[in-house]
From TrEMBL:
It comes from Leptotrombidium deliense. LDL-receptor class B repeats lie at residues 130-173, 174-218. InterPro entries: 6-blade_b-propeller_TolB-like (IPR011042), Cueball_EGF_LRP_Nidogen (IPR050778), LDLR_classB_rpt (IPR000033). PANTHER family: EGF-LIKE DOMAIN-CONTAINING PROTEIN, VITELLOGENIN RECEPTOR-LIKE PROTEIN-RELATED-RELATED. SUPFAM superfamilies: YWTD domain. This is Very low-density lipoprotein receptor-like protein.
Amino acid sequence: MHNSTEKPSLLIASGNTIHTVIHDEYTNVGLIDYSLMSNYIIWNDFHTDSFFIEKLDKAKPSQFSNKKQLLKSEIRALGFAVDWIHDLVYWTNLYELTVEVAHLANMNETTILVKNADEPRAIAVCVQSSLLFWTDCSHQPKIESVFQDGTNRKVIVEKGLRYPFSLTIDQIESRIYWLDGMQSEIYACDFDGRHRSLIVHSPQFLSHANALGVFGDTVYWSDWNHNSITKVNKLQEASMLYQPIITLKAMLHDFKIVHSSKQPMSHNRCNSNQCSHLCLPHNESCYTCFCPPFHYISTNGFRCIAL
């Protein structure tokens, strides 16, 4: 259930500015995500492929008081997602065709979670279920899922896809939503791919859509052509009223809906973990230890040893 007294706000990456929550100047802001619990915002610079972090709400305490560069690497991230409980960052790497993960405490110690991804793009995480989802925009498009530790990889959607460009999660309903750019359509399904439904079909309003969001009964998307964000009630199929809610002068790259129901509290599976390096949640109750490159895990499953 949503808190009726708490109104959602939008966190928007556009040109050289992050709007509505932070009003400082940035350069080439591409993707964006946040953690309400730890009060930080993460974004990437799409020209340098660098990740940055800073305080989300400047009126509240945070360990990230000043803007800080987390990672600079030629990773060409086309999507990234924050695990707000375990302070993990997941991203898709178009150059290496992988899905990767790192802890905020040491973003340079990245771990390849998924190999042989054909053309990984959008990515989203459901922390309560320890599930990670990503879209694949190759010649055989699909949507896949995996546990947050890289196990139990599955293709959950592969029929009727052309270009699943963007992805988001309804944490309350346990459903994923995706935007198919070539079909000008938004779909939704359960986490296992069942109960698929068409939410919006509109060549007029979705032909240049890129980022996607959902909150309650409302679906939001951004438009590259008009640099705007539009919303529609997903339950009013017969008479959909498309409502542009904001238009910007600069190109609108990404946005996130900021609300506590978008990042519900969950048990931290890595509390009191024994991992020497990276701890990743496996399911709702346990975790797996991972090692950085050029290390291997010891026989006890906790300690990383250099090669």
